[in-house]
Design brief:
homodimer; 278 residues; alpha/beta; TIM Barrel; 12 helices; 42% helix
Chain lengths: 278, 278
């Protein structure tokens, strides 16, 4: 099963657009619990409630070889029928990007990856050429400073004639380009829930594309708007990611049942806003 | 000694603007030589000829824990008075970027890092807040598709009045913004040697800023133009990186003396083009 099929199947089976971000932070985890045990307990408590898991590499890389080992073992522990996204935000020139793609897809066995668009398509093609894998291009990110470059107004190229629209915001151009690159149908976009109007605009440009939407929960994104603008009557799907609100739902030893309650609550909230039930 | 002082000292001592990229690729390395031994031999053969070393993380990450261990041991093997750049091209939201910065600066002990600008300054500030470290922001990269976004024409903000320049290419805006962010004086820019006219333009915007210039050698960048446009009468310095042309100068067991000859030759070529001797 390729990434898209696995995602569709998990979404339907668990009636869920919720992705749980497994981003272990030693300062916030319960004392005396190792990160692999922490992740395994979260996975065991939530795997019937989610459509995917997402692992942000920074939280593993900071723990060195022990972290890398936990990353690998965590992916192995996730049931085969739930897709796993490598939130690595890589972006490098061709031969280097190929090494990153091998690391993430061949060695670590992730189903999908996040990548940065700044270097252009030749930095992304080494990932999209794995046709059975998903590739999410950063479009409008969830952080406070996202607009600094992403919302700059840029000219369309080639320059258009009088009477046609001649400029777009940079994130719109990324969304439009991603559509052109998507010849294998395995490209999605990362769009923060913290910017609902931008999400609406991106969905208008790409009515069919899969959107990975972080920023609900701890980052304060608008869940209702994310669902309303993200789910498309044309069939475009969403993956709504929450990390901290789920995995740190309780600070003590009862973190796993607390994570389950938080995930179940989020799933219900999301489904409540759906125009058509899953 | 902070990154800038260490770099200046190594540049003067070795009369060199050359940085050697330690990017081990199992397919190109001599048979039967492990990557740590390969790196150590290259370092021992070139450490009196360079101003810095640069390690691209992809080539280590693809080798999993063994690669991460080799990365760490390689940094330890490099003499303390030569700065080491982590070519990681990271770019993520604040709390995640802080984890990457800790991994690269605190754990692995790199002197500098490369970062992507797409998420804006709040994704870069966790790195620049290490005042003794260097941070190179991707500006105009060396790859064939770099222009796709980087050379889009974008409006300056706030919109300027009639008669003033109202637009710039995206990479120019990155260079200008980097100057605004540079309150601690530890920001540099990555500018590919493969685009000399863009390099010239960037140098005109940032006459004092340190430029990290990859793309000479295997990527076919113009060395003479890189030196002519990169070295600034105002004092702006360059770091010219070559990876493959040096480390794979010979395919067999004599790779280390061959790397030394290649590095010495490049150093001489670079110095030949300098307007004023080092």
């Amino acid at each position: 099963m390729n990434f898209g099929e696995k995602l569709t199947s998990a979404t339907r089976r668990n009636k869920s657009f919720l992705c749980v971000g497994l981003d272990p932070d030693l300062e916030r985890m319960p004392e005396g619990v190792g990160i692999l045990d922490f992740n395994k307990a979260i996975i065991d408590a939530t795997s019937d409630l989610v459509c995917a898991y997402k692992l942000n590499f920074a939280f593993y890389e900071v723990l060195e070889t022990q972290g890398l080992d936990a990353l690998k073992q965590t992916v192995k522990h996730i049931p085969d029928d739930i897709p796993v996204i490598a939130d690595a935000k890589r972006g490098d020139i061709g031969n280097t990007a190929r090494a990153y793609a091998r690391a993430i897809f061949d060695n670590l066995n992730f189903d999908a990856v996040t990548v940065s668009p700044y270097l252009g398509f030749d930095s992304i093609e080494p990932f999209t050429s794995y046709h059975d894998k998903g590739v999410f291009v950063l479009c409008r990110t969830s952080n406070p400073g996202a607009a600094e470059f992403q919302s700059m107004r840029c000219e369309m190229e080639p320059p258009t004639g009088a009477g046609t629209e001649a400029s777009r915001l940079l994130f719109e151009l990324v969304a439009l380009k991603a559509g052109q690159w998507n010849t294998s149908g395995n490209i999605g976009l990362v769009v923060g829930a913290t910017y609902p109007e931008e999400l609406k605009l991106i969905r208008s440009h790409q009515p069919d594309m899969l959107l990975l939407i972080p920023g609900i929960g701890a980052q304060g994104g608008d869940l209702a708007a994310a669902v309303r603008y993200g789910v498309s009557p044309r069939g475009g799907r969403i993956i709504l990611n929450s990390s901290r609100q789920v995995i740190y739902a309780a600070p003590g030893k009862d973190f796993a049942p607390a994570a389950r309650r938080a995930a179940a609550g989020l799933r219900e909230q999301i489904n409540h806003y759906l125009p058509v039930p899953l």
